Amino acid sequence: MPYGIMTPQSGKLNEISLGQYQQLIKVLSGIADSNLSEDEREHLVLNDLNFNNAMINGGDNSTSKNGLEYVLTGEGEPQLISTFLVKEKNK
Known about the structure:
Layout: E1 3-8, H1 15-32, H2 38-48, H3 51-57, E2 60-65, E3 68-73, E4 81-88
Antiparallel strand pairs: 1-4, 2-3, 3-4
């Protein structure tokens, strides 16, 4: 730990690539915390991290659960990439 994924800005990705990125985030969340159910991972990505808003409008979204912090950085300047990180909280 930490785990992370980097991808080009969402504006440079097609719909299929965005869907694959979202799936990777869900899978990585499950690897980081195997106690998360599929529904909890779905809620974490779509609601807590507000995936769609982050990919469209940018900004940093974060949440924590079970001692882990999840950070999603989306579209927008000055970022040239979108990132997703999972790390132990307060480390």
